[in-house]
Amino acid sequence: MIVDIGADALTIEPLHQRGKVCVNPRSHLHLLPPAPLGQLKLYESTKEFKEIILLCVENDALLRTYVANILIAVNPYFDIPNLYGPEAIKSYKGKSLGTLPPHVYAIADKAYRDMKVLKMSQSIIVSGESGAGKTENTKFVLRYLTTTYGTGQDIDERIVEANPLLEAFGNAKTVRNNNSSRFGKFVEIHFNEKVQIVGGFVSHYLLEKSRICVQSSDERNYHIFYRLCAGATEDLKKKLRLDSPDHFRVRAQILHLYVQSCGEKNK
Ligand SMILES: Nc1ncnc2c1ncn2[C@@H]1O[C@H](COP(=O)(O)OP(=O)(O)OP(=O)(O)O)[C@@H](O)[C@H]1O
Ligand SMILES: [Mg+2]
């Protein structure tokens, strides 16, 4: 059975050898034909980690669970069909925790309902190691609240659409995450007396400024640098003294000009 899902490997405890754990690189894992929940059997082969996650999804297991009202979510590293779509948003509206399978939307809805009933501000803390999915889950919370409890005016979209801009200036490729947030973020969503969204405010702190001048190998500068080099007008480039990234002193790090994740391609 799976004991731990790490960034590069799975820790597995063989069912016939309890107490003995082995660490397997993802690329070496293969699933036996689907096993009942709690009895995922694994052996070494070349099949993808994705298959393991897909089986978890089929069984609705392992990816998300609650400890009291804390949601623990594993990053699946690919888009799970319909998990965050409009239908899912609708289905979690007004539902108590535990009524439906664990989901970040359920947490968002609970915070909203508590705010309404207790008439007090509520906080959702999103925590985890780099690449755990904090930024993505924060965006899901914002998307859920603006879709479900927004006023339908452009403020809802503006709150959500501020993110790509913020990420351009504060996120960069690291060895752990192609879109790693190199700053802390405190997002406020403001509601009126009818408990509808009327505004938002994002404060940021601890921006990693040193990254602008120097990056570790395999890492990149902030996304905005490459985007300006690629897409700014000639006037702006002249003003900012920008050229092709290859011409900068930090060219040792420029081997990774382009990030291959789907997310990056869409931005
Ligand atoms: N729920 C999800 N479904 C599909 N893919 C996801 C999900 N959560 C995260 N990912 C993928 O994992 C990548 C890393 O996630 P994210 O940027 O949210 O991590 P993070 O916890 O914010 O890391 P960091 O601390 O480095 O900023 C995303 O770019 C996305 O490709
Ligand atoms: Mg992040």
Bound molecules: adenosine-5'-triphosphate, magnesium ion
- Largest sheet, described in full? 3 strands, antiparallel
Order of the strands making up the biggest sheet: 1-2-3
Q: Whole-Å distance between the termini?
A: 38 Å
Low-confidence regions: 30-47, 261-267
**Strand percentage, roughly?**
15-25%
Quaternary assembly:
single chain
Order of helices and strands: EEEEEHEEHHHHEEEEHHH
User: Roughly what percent helix?
Assistant: 25-40%
Shape: flat
Tell me the number of helical segments per DSSP (H or I, 4 or more residues long).
8
**How many strands appear in the DSSP assignment?**
11
- Please state the CA-atom Rg, rounded to the nearest Å: 21 Å
Return the structural class.
alpha+beta
Mean pLDDT: 81
Domain Myosin motor: 65-267
Keywords: Actin-binding, ATP-binding, Motor protein, Myosin, Nucleotide-binding
GO molecular function: actin filament binding; ATP binding; microfilament motor activity
InterPro entries: Kinesin_motor_dom_sf, Myosin_head_motor_dom-like, P-loop_NTPase
